[in-house]
Amino acid sequence: MPPRPPQIPPGRAYYSRMRRILALATLGLAAAAGDPKPEPAPRWAPSWDAAVEEARALNLPIVVHRHGFY
Amino acid sequence: MHRSVLQHKGYIDFARRNTVEVISMEELDRAVEAGEYLETYTVKDAYGDEVKHLVRFPGLTVDQLRDLSNGPAIEFMEGGRIPYTAIVDPHSGDQMEGVRGVVSAVDLMALVRKHGKALETKYGKGIERDLWDRVADGAVQADLNLGEGRIAEAMGVWRRLAELTVRQPEVLQRKVEAVKEVVLASAAERLDALEKEADAAKVRKECKELARALRDTDLEARAQELASRK
């Protein structure tokens, strides 16, 4: 294993350089046991910029749902 | 929240193939202060880090929901009344259609189909979502390999992504190229370290493997030169 500065945790060494590509990655997301189950829902874009980038690449419309809690 | 659409199985399946979905909520800070509606569940991401996602908005943290709720999505609120649904052209940023009040899942799907066809006529067919996801997940795999010092494996991930996207639009190829740049930067750092390594047998062994992994790149010759060092 190559030497790494100690302040960089293993597996995060290149995270900042790749963060734009990683924005939409779904790999490895696993819910913890005992937690409430997520409700059924569409896959939400994590940010407006990510939504625009993905929608342009996939050439799909963005659907914005504006709702309220109260 | 408008469950008749957002929890409608038919709409959820439809959205996977036909839309990019953005949620934007009013009075989020009030809900945070009151400790209401924002129950979370914990997920571990690919790096093993725990992240709390919202039960009602799976995949989103409360901070992401706040940014979405205060971001450009608000611009599409005609009349300032909720609920409001906007169908947006991602290329121009213009609203293609806005619906005030409640809309049924069936009606919304019909509107999305209409505007999706218009986008395809104007801009052509887009990238398949599965492929888009595979590139994003491949970048994580490459990154995890680099974090563990497995440069050859990371190069292998890049090569598979490159093959997968060879005839794909430039936007996807740019992402794959970015993976390659990061992997090669890591490989160059490793070769720098090996150049200073005193254990010649170790250097030869590792550089032989690196030279194979780095074939047809600018670093191949350097790895070969180190692999043949006495």
What is the topological layout?
The complex is a heterodimer of chains A (70) and B (230).
Chain A lengths: L14 H8 L7 E2 L16 H11 L3 E7 L2
Chain B lengths: L2 H4 L2 H10 L1 E7 L1 H7 L5 E5 L5 E5 L7 H9 L13 E5 L6 E6 L4 H19 L5 H19 L3 H14 L5 H26 L4 H14 L6 H8 L3
Antiparallel strand pairs in B: 2-3, 4-5
Helix pairs in contact in B: 2-5, 6-7, 6-8, 7-8, 7-9, 9-10
What labels describe this entry?
heterodimer; A: alpha+beta; extended; disordered N terminus; B: two-stranded antiparallel sheet
Give an overview of the whole structure:
Chain A is α+β, with helices and mostly antiparallel strands and 70 residues long. Chain A has helices at 15-22, 48-58, and strands spanning 30-31, 62-68. Chain A is extended, with a radius of gyration of 17 Å. Chain B starts with a helix and ends with a helix. In chain B, 57% of the residues lie in helices and 12% in strands. Chain B has helices at 3-6, 9-18, 28-34, 62-70, 105-123, 129-147, 151-164, 170-195, 200-213, 220-227; strands at residues 20-26, 40-44, 50-54, 84-88, 95-100. Chain B folds into two domains: 2-123, no CATH class; 129-227, no CATH class. Chains A and B meet through helix 1, strand 1, helix 2 and strand 2 of A and helix 2, strand 1, helix 3, strand 2 and helix 4 of B.
Overview in brief:
Residues 1-17 of chain A have low confidence and may be disordered. Chain A is an alpha+beta fold and 70 residues long.
Number of strands of chain A: 2
What's the overall geometry of chain B? elongated
Radius of gyration of chain B: 24 Å
Question: Helicity level of chain A, as a percent range?
Answer: 25-40%
Oligomer: heterodimer
Radius of gyration of chain A: 17 Å
Counting DSSP H or I runs of 4 or more residues, the number of helices of chain A is: 2
Mass-distribution shape of chain A: extended
Counted up, domains of chain B total: 2
Arrangement of strands in the largest sheet of chain B: 2-3
Which structural class fits the helix and strand makeup of chain B?
A: alpha+beta
Fraction of residues in β-strands of chain A: 5-15%
> How widely separated are the two ends of chain B?
70 Å
Number of helices of chain B: 10
| DSSP helix fraction of chain B | 55-70%
Q: Return the string of H and E elements of chain A.
A: HEHE
What is the beta-strand fraction of chain B?
Answer: 5-15%
Listing every helix as H and every strand as E from the N terminus to the C terminus, the arrangement of chain B reads HHEHEEHEEHHHHHH
Structural class of chain A: alpha+beta
Whole-number average pLDDT of chain A? 72
